[in-house]
Design a protein that fits this description.
The complex is a heterodimer of chains A (about 180) and B (about 260). With about 180 residues, chain A is mainly α. Chain A has helices at about 5-15, 15-40, 40-60, 70-85, 100-105, 115-130, 135-145, 150-160, 160-184. The longest helix of chain A is centred in the N-terminal third of the chain and has 23 residues, at about 15-40. Chain B has about 260 residues and is α/β, with parallel strands linked by helices. In chain B, strands 1-2-3-5-6-4 form a 6-stranded mixed sheet, with helices on one face. The chains are: A mainly alpha (about 180), B alpha/beta (about 260). Chains A and B meet through helix 2, helix 3, helix 4, helix 6 and helix 7 of A and helix 1, helix 3, helix 4 and helix 11 of B.
C-alpha cells in the first residue's frame, strides 16, 4: 500500500478532477495492453479499456489502499475483460485466426532483417496461440509473462490462492509450448 | 522414474521453488532428456511472451474516456460529497438536516400544488412571488394554509423518523441506527437489492449486523452461479471487499479471498 495511492483516491473523492487524469496517464497503457492480450483485438481492447476506466473513475473514491492502486487497477481491467467475454458467451475459450497478424507488426529493431522476420513469425504464432488458451490460463500467463507481475500480485488480482496461480501459469505455459510445437 | 510436474518445472523457471524442490528438479533434469526439452520449450514461450510488443492506447480512447468521465464524474462527485457530508454529521445534526429538507420540500410542494389548484397550471410558477407581494391575494392564501403546513410537517417528521429507524433492522434498533448509518460510506443497487458499504463490506439492506451462517469465496462454484446471474453483484466484490446478503433464509457472506 502506498500513501501516494491513497492520497490520489482522497483527492478524487474530494472532487479534484486532475486525480483521475493522473491515474489515466499512469495506467492507460497497462490496461490497454492487458485487454489487448486478453481479447486479441484492438477495437475490443479499446472498448474494454474504456469500461475499465469508467469503473476506475466511479470507484476510485472508495479505494482504501488494501492493495496497491496498480494491483487494484489490474483487477478492474481483468474483470472488465471477464464481463465483456461473459456477455458474449465466450469466457471459457476463444480462437481467433488473425490474432497474431494484427498485433505483431513491430518487432524489435536491434536484430537483422532475417532474425526479425523469424521473430515476427514466432510472435504471431504466440499471439494466436495465446488466444487458444482457456481464459483462466490466459489471464495468469499474461499477468506473469507479459506484464511481469509476481505470484503474490497475481493472486491478489485474480482473487485466488498462490497455489492456483502457480498451477494456472504452468498449465498455460505448457499448453502454449504444445501449440507452438504443433505449428512449427 | 517419476518426472517433475509441470508446476514444478514452471516454478523452477520463475525461481519460485523451495530449496529442496529446486535440488530435486535439477537432479532430475541432469538425467532426463524429455524434461529438459519440455523445460526448454517453456523457456522459449516465456522468453517470447516477454518480447510481445506493447502498444500505446489509441488517442481516441483517452478522449472518449475523458468525455464519459466528465459527464458521469460531475454527478458522482456531488453524490459523494452529499454522502460524506451526511456520514460526518452527528445524530442530531442528521435529524435536523433531514427535517429541514422535508419541511422545505413540503412547503414547496404544498405551495405549488395550491397554486395549480387555484390558478391552473399557468399560474403555478408565480406562486412564491405572490407571497412576497402583500397586496395580492396570495398573502391571504398563505395565512389560510399555515395550519395545514403544520400538519404536513408533523407527518413528514414522523415519516423521516420511521425511515431512519426502518432503514437498518427495524424499530427496535433505532438507538443503534444512527451510528450504523454514519458508517455507511455508499449504497448501490445490485441483484434487485440495495447494498450499503461499511468499510470493505457490502451489506444488503435489512441484513444488518446479523452473523453469516455461510461463507463463500468469490471463486467458489456457488458464488460463480450468482455472478452469472448478477454480474453487478460480482462487481461489488471485485472492487474491494465482501458481500453479505440473504439467500434462501440464510445470511451468506461472499468474500474476495486472496489467500
Amino acid at each position: 500500500m502506498s500513501n501516494a495511492d491513497v492520497d490520489l483516491a482522497e483527492r478524487h473523492r474530494s472532487g479534484d478532477t486532475t486525480a483521475f487524469n493522473e491515474v489515466y496517464e499512469a495506467y492507460s497503457e497497462m490496461v490497454f495492453n492487458v485487454a489487448l492480450r486478453m481479447c486479441g483485438n484492438l477495437d475490443e481492447a479499446s472498448d474494454i479499456s474504456q469500461e475499465a476506466f469508467i469503473k476506475v473513475n466511479r470507484y476510485l473514491g472508495g479505494f482504501r489502499g488494501r492493495s496497491s492502486l496498480r494491483t487494484w487497477i489490474y483487477r478492474v481491467a481483468v474483470n472488465s475483460c471477464r464481463s465483456r467475454f461473459r456477455k458474449q458467451n465466450r469466457w471459457q475459450s476463444r480462437v481467433i485466426a488473425d490474432g497474431g497478424e494484427q498485433l505483431e507488426s513491430m518487432p524489435g529493431t536491434d536484430r537483422s532483417p532475417e532474425e526479425r522476420a523469424i521473430a515476427r513469425g514466432t510472435m504471431r504464432l504466440l499471439s494466436a496461440a495465446l488466444m487458444q488458451l482457456p481464459a483462466i490460463f490466459r489471464e495468469a500467463v499474461v499477468l506473469r509473462d507479459v506484464e511481469g507481475l509476481t505470484y503474490d500480485e497475481i493472486a491478489a488480482v485474480l482473487g485466488v490462492r498462490i497455489g492456483t496461480v502457480r498451477s494456472r501459469i504452468a498449465r498455460g505455459r505448457d499448453r502454449l509450448r504444445t501449440i507452438l510445437e504443433e505449428q512449427s | 522414474m517419476s518426472h517433475p510436474s509441470v508446476e514444478l518445472l514452471s516454478s523452477y523457471l520463475d525461481d519460485h521453488l523451495r530449496e529442496s524442490e529446486r535440488l530435486h528438479v535439477e537432479s532430475h533434469l541432469d538425467g532426463c532428456q524429455e524434461c529438459r526439452e519440455r523445460l526448454n520449450g517453456m523457456t522459449h514461450v516465456v522468453h517470447h511472451l516477454a518480447g510481445l510488443s506493447r502498444m500505446a492506447p489509441p488517442l481516441q480512447l483517452g478522449l472518449e474516456v475523458r468525455r464519459r468521465v466528465s459527464i458521469e464524474g460531475r454527478g458522482d462527485t456531488l453524490l459523494q460529497r452529499l454522502e460524506e457530508g451526511v456520514a460526518q454529521l452527528s445524530l442530531q445534526a442528521s435529524i435536523v438536516s433531514a427535517f429541514a429538507v422535508v419541511v422545505a420540500l413540503s412547503v414547496i410542494i404544498y405551495v405549488v400544488a395550491a397554486g395549480v389548484e387555484r390558478h391552473g397550471p399557468s399560474a403555478a410558477a408565480p406562486r412564491a412571488i405572490a407571497s412576497e407581494k402583500a397586496a395580492e391575494p396570495g398573502q391571504q392564501d398563505a395565512a389560510v394554509q399555515a395550519p395545514e403546513e403544520k400538519k404536513d410537517i408533523g407527518r413528514a417528521e414522523a415519516m423521516a423518523s420511521n425511515a431512519l429507524s426502518d432503514g437498518v433492522g427495524g424499530r427496535q434498533e433505532a438507538e443503534q441506527t444512527p451510528r450504523r448509518r454514519a458508517d455507511i460510506l455508499e449504497s448501490r443497487p445490485a441483484a434487485g437489492r440495495t447494498f450499503d458499504r461499511q468499510g470493505d463490506l457490502w451489506i444488503e439492506q435489512g441484513v444488518g449486523a446479523t452473523t453469516p451462517t455461510i461463507y463463500l469465496t468469490n471463486g467458489s462454484q456457488l458464488a460463480r452461479q450468482w455472478w452469472e446471474r448478477y454480474p453487478e453483484l460480482e462487481e461489488l466484490v471485485d472492487l474491494g471487499g465482501s458481500v453479505r446478503l440473504r439467500l434462501d433464509g440464510e445470511i451468506v457472506e461472499i468474500r474476495f479471498d486472496t489467500e
